[in-house]
Write a structure and sequence with these properties.
The complex is a heterodimer.
Chain A: H1 35-53, H2 57-64, H3 75-91, H4 97-102, H5 106-122, H6 127-151
Helix pairs in contact in A: 1-2, 1-3, 2-3, 5-6
Chain B: E1 3-6, E2 12-17, E3 23-28, E4 32-38, E5 44-51, E6 57-63, E7 68-73, E8 78-84, E9 89-95, E10 103-108, E11 114-119, E12 124-130, E13 135-141, E14 149-154, E15 160-165, E16 169-174, E17 199-204, E18 210-215, E19 221-226, E20 230-235, E21 238-246, E22 252-259, E23 262-267, E24 273-277, E25 282-287, H1 302-312, E26 330-339, E27 342-350, E28 354-359, H2 360-366
Antiparallel strand pairs in B: 1-28, 2-3, 3-4, 4-5, 6-7, 7-8, 8-9, 10-11, 11-12, 12-13, 14-15, 15-16, 16-17, 18-19, 19-20, 20-21, 22-23, 23-24, 24-25, 26-27, 27-28
Classes of the chains: A mainly alpha, B mainly beta.
């Protein structure tokens, strides 16, 4: 018997990568690293900061949740938008959260849910305040909004 | 009140009634399929067991006019069962599916001369009878389906088929077979005559597996439900516009048209919901699982309260009673009887092993102002 029998190398091969018929996500709708999209995100960050300074928290929230860079290949762009949204959520008083969420439309609640779950995984230290937002968002969006976060393959 | 029968203590994957509702064929999580007869008390009990499959039976269908049952299972096979009058048993006939993965879903076509089998082999098999060799042969539709097929629906014309699959798309194909001397007509779905397997329309559900798909009674509208908790509808006269309702409930698994204007969906929320269809939109109608409300705060004497506290540890009735008729996810919904082009009774079966028959007249009377 040859020495090759003892080798465990074959166990490290990712056999699914060689399967020609394996399902590949449709990448045609992905936002490529376009300059204008990252510009949009930076502009939004600045505008949101302004709105927060003038304590227009409700408007800041709506603006921050608009057009999220879903599927953007540049992680820093997604990160920046994520920080923008987190800064808005932090600026709210606990008593104002209810009315803020009620003024959001259904797609906006879905986007908010996506950021909340991103927050749970990226910033676990903020979990307490995020959970408060989550409870109120579920009251408005229902279990369906959570399901849509779970099935989302591209991530916000 | 919906008529509930606990058939098994394990999930029912599929069920189908015969033409006069005296019998129902049910598959649970085993390789055996059970044909059940309605007894004098109205309950169904096993009269025949169809044993041929080697793996769990995933789907069954009963062709009402020709009285044939088709079953498909995880052993990559399907069988067509013909009733033998003299012995009172069902005789299986082999189907050559030629798939290398489990079969997931099967449906007879409206004229019952062929049936479609969806499978995990990412292809759809349209099967028709070959009299020379006395078996059923299949033709495959493969491109561009890229993942497991979960559900299939035949168009009333008998040669168009809608397929919902795990690659997040709902597609419509032409299934006109030369071998069966089909003479398809052009329609809104097929503006020019297309050969077998041509993709006529494709709809994206944005990352949700398509669990259920159904053509409307006229065939002009197509509705499907996906795992992102959405209910979708498209009209063949305007294929660009897909009406979607992103619901706040758990995802639905199956869909049935009650009439040209209303659909009933059911799934992980354990209860059927009604959605209304108007020419310009799709909207939520009502939850169909209504129970007569029990009066909760009955006048309990102080003595009774303490007694209850002593025995149960709590004075109020805890929320341990089920609000829904089904105890688990509903996986299949079937139309049982129709009148005036509207479904009057439908049945649901689910993972709780229950078969429930719903009567729309009763439901309409319980929900004020509901019209199907």
């Amino acid at each position: 018997m040859s020495k090759a029998v003892d080798s465990r190398q074959f166990r490290t091969i990712d056999i699914d990568a060689y399967d020609e018929e394996a399902y590949q996500d449709d990448k045609s709708t992905d936002v490529t690293g376009s300059q204008e999209h990252s510009l949009q995100v930076s502009e939004r960050a600045a505008q949101v900061k302004q709105l927060l300074n003038t304590s227009k928290c409700g408007d800041a929230l709506t603006l921050a949740l608009k057009d999220p860079p879903i599927g953007h290949l540049d992680a820093s762009v997604k990160d920046q938008n994520y920080q923008t949204v987190m800064s808005v959520l932090k600026a709210f008083r606990t008593t104002d959260i209810d009315s803020a969420i009620n003024s959001l439309s259904a797609p906006e609640v879905d986007v908010l849910m996506k950021y909340l779950y991103k927050g749970f995984s990226c910033s676990p230290d903020k979990a307490a305040s995020l959970l408060l937002w989550h409870e109120k968002a579920v009251k408005k969006g229902g279990l369906g909004s959570i399901v849509r976060v779970m099935v989302d393959r591209k991530g916000v | 009140m919906p008529v509930v029968q606990q058939l098994f203590n394990e999930p029912i994957s599929s069920h189908a009634f015969n033409a006069d509702l005296s019998q129902v064929v049910v598959s649970n999580s085993s390789p055996n399929t059970h044909v059940m007869k309605k007894g004098p008390d109205g309950n169904y009990s096993v009269s025949n067991t169809l044993e041929q499959h080697l793996e769990r039976v995933t789907s069954v269908d009963w062709a009402p006019t020709t009285n044939r049952i088709v079953t498909c299972a995880g052993d990559r096979n399907a069988y067509v069962w013909n009733y033998q009058e003299d012995t009172g048993s069902w005789k299986p006939c082999l189907v050559l599916l030629r798939i290398n993965r489990a079969a997931t879903f099967v449906r007879w076509s409206p004229q019952e001369d062929r049936f479609a089998v969806g499978s995990g082999a990412r292809l759809l098999s349209i099967c028709y009878f070959d009299p020379e060799n006395n078996w059923w042969v299949s033709k495959h539709i493969k491109k561009p389906i890229r993942s497991t097929i979960l559900c299939v629906s035949w168009h009333p014309s008998n040669h168009l088929i809608a397929v919902g699959s795990c690659d997040f798309k709902c597609r419509v194909f032409s299934a006109a077979l030369k071998e069966m001397s089909d003479k398809p007509q052009t329609s809104t779905w097929m503006p020019k005559l297309s050969k077998f397997g041509t993709l006529l329309a494709e709809f994206d559900t944005n990352s949700g597996w398509v669990h259920g798909v159904h053509f409307s009674p006229s065939g002009t509208l197509l509705a499907w439900v996906a795992h992102d908790s959405s209910v979708n509808l498209v009209n063949s006269t305007n294929l660009e516009k897909v009406h979607t309702v992103h619901t706040s409930y758990l995802p639905y698994c199956c869909v049935l048209w009650l009439s040209e204007e209303s659909i009933v969906v059911a799934g992980h929320s354990n209860s059927p919901d009604l959605y209304k269809v108007t020419p310009d939109k799709l909207e939520f109608g009502a939850k169909l699982d209504v129970k007569k409300q029990k009066s909760s705060n009955s006048n309990m004497s102080a003595m009774d309260r303490f007694k209850k506290l002593d025995v149960q540890g709590q004075a109020e009735e805890a929320a341990t009673t089920l609000e829904t008729t089904h105890a688990n996810c509903i996986t299949e919904i079937r139309s049982i009887s129709t009148a005036n082009n509207k479904v009057t009774k439908f049945s649901t079966s689910g993972k709780d092993g229950r078969l429930v028959v719903w009567e729309l007249d009763n439901i309409c009377s319980l929900i004020a102002g509901l019209q199907i």
